[in-house]
C-alpha cells in the first residue's frame, strides 16, 4: 500500500512477491523503500511504484529492516540473522550477531551506530556498521518486538506484556518504564529525544519528557478555576503551566525531568494525567486571604522521589 497525501488515500501496489509474505518495510525518501518477510524475501522500489526482489542469501524469516540512506541498510530476523547492504540491496552480506534467538527490530542512527532487539530481552549494539555486535543488558526476559532511537543516545525498546525500556546513553543502561498496558507492544517510533510512540494489541502509547526547573514560587488567583484532566485538575490561574491544584486544594509542582507513559484511546494524550509528573505537594486551603504564603515540601509516597524539608514554595494569592 502507498500514500502520497499523508494517509488520506492508500493505493495497492504489486510487490512482486506472494501475498502475505512481507512483514516489515522501511524507506529513505519518497521513492526508495525495502520490504522483508518470509523465506528471506526482500523487495525493493527505487521509483516508489514498481517493485523487484533482491537476493538476500538466506531462507530465514526476515522480520525487520532499516536504512540510514539509499545505500546502507540492515535486515534482521530468525535465528539471529543480520544482513547488511552498502549498495542499496544489490548485494546483501550476513553479519555475525553472536546469538541464535529471533531478532524482531533494528534501528540505526547513522551508518555506524545501530541496535537490534529480540527474544528473551536480547539487545545487541554495534558502533562499526555491524562488523561486530555486542550484547547490552536489558534486565528483562521479555521478547522485545519494537525499537526506536532518535539519536545515538536516546532510544526505546518495547515488547511482550507491555514492557517498555528507555536509554539515554546509547544502551549502556536500560531503564524500565511503566507503559500503562499489559498488552504486547510490537513497534515504536521516536521523533526526538523526548517524544516517542509505541503500538500493540489494543493500545497506543505516547511518551513524553517534560523538563522544567525546580519551581520555588507560583502566583495564582484566589478565584482561579480548575479544569479536570483525568484525575488531575490543572490550575488555570497559574502563571506557569507546571503547577496544578488537585483534590482538597493541594498544590502540586512538577518535578524536573519528569517522564511517564500515558494511554490514548481516540482522544488527546495527556502526559500529566494521574499526577505522576508532580514532585512537590503543598496544602492550600480555600478562603485564604490574598498575600504570599510559604509552604514546606511534603513527599507524596506515590512519587518515589525524596524532597528536602528545607524546600519552600512561595504561593502568592492575588
How would you describe what is shown here?
The protein is built from no helices and 28 strands. With 318 residues, the protein is mainly β. The chain has two domains: 22-209, Methylamine Dehydrogenase, Chain H, CATH 2.130.10.10; 211-317, no CATH class. The strands form eight sheets. A four-stranded antiparallel sheet has the order 1-2-3-4, with no helix packed on it. It has a four-stranded antiparallel sheet with strand order 5-6-7-8, with no helix packed on it. A four-stranded antiparallel sheet has the order 9-10-11-12, with no helix packed on it. Strand 21 (226-229) and strand 22 (232-235) form a beta hairpin. Residues 210-288 and 295-313 have low confidence and may be disordered.
Domain count: the total is 2
| Name of the CATH architecture of the largest domain | 7 Propeller
**How would you name the CATH homologous superfamily of the largest domain?**
YVTN repeat-like/Quinoprotein amine dehydrogenase
Strand content: 35-45%
Shape: globular
Which structural class best describes the helix and strand composition? Answer: mainly beta
**Ends apart, CA distance between termini:** 58 Å
| Mean pLDDT over all positions | 74
Q: Which class of the largest domain in CATH terms?
A: Mainly Beta
